[in-house]
């Protein structure tokens, strides 16, 4: 499986509690698409949220986020890490 970094824009003011709730919503359904969300980060001032996942495809990541109610604006494969 491949690692993916997805980006959500227009999330100004997101709180730690809201980020946690969104992450938990992903975790609740991730197995249905064969995805595992590792971690999420947010910059409330910039309104940007980042999520790192391992998945069979970008489409699988997209489907989980859409079903959980917070579609990603960008999904990037990150096949190399150090």
Question: In summary, what is this structure?
Answer:
With 82 residues, the protein is of the alpha+beta class. The protein has two helices and four strands; from the N terminus they run βαββαβ.
How many helix segments? 2
User: Main sheet?
Assistant: 4 strands, antiparallel
The mean pLDDT is 97
List segments where confidence is low: pLDDT < 50 over at least 5 consecutive residues. none
Task: Give the strand tally.
Answer: 4
Any overview of this molecule?
The structure is a single chain. By secondary structure, the chain is of the alpha+beta class. It is 30% helix and 33% strand. It is built from two helices and four strands. The protein has a four-stranded antiparallel beta sheet with strand order 2-3-1-4. A hairpin with a 4-residue loop joins strand 2 and strand 3 (48-55). The longest helix has 14 residues, at 16-29.
Name the descriptors.
82 residues; alpha+beta; four-stranded antiparallel beta sheet
Write the layout of secondary structure elements.
Blueprint: E1 2-8, H1 16-29, E2 36-43, E3 48-55, H2 58-68, E4 74-77
Antiparallel strand pairs: 1-3, 1-4, 2-3
Helix pairs in contact: 1-2
């Amino acid at each position: 499986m491949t690692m993916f970094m997805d980006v959500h824009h227009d999330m100004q003011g997101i709180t730690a509690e809201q980020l946690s709730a969104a992450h938990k919503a992903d975790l609740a359904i991730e197995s249905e698409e064969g995805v595992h969300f590792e971690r999420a980060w947010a910059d409330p001032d910039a309104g940007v949220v980042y999520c790192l996942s391992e998945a069979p495809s970008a489409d699988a990541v997209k489907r989980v986020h859409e079903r959980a109610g917070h579609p990603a604006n960008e999904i990037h494969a990150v096949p190399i890490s150090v």
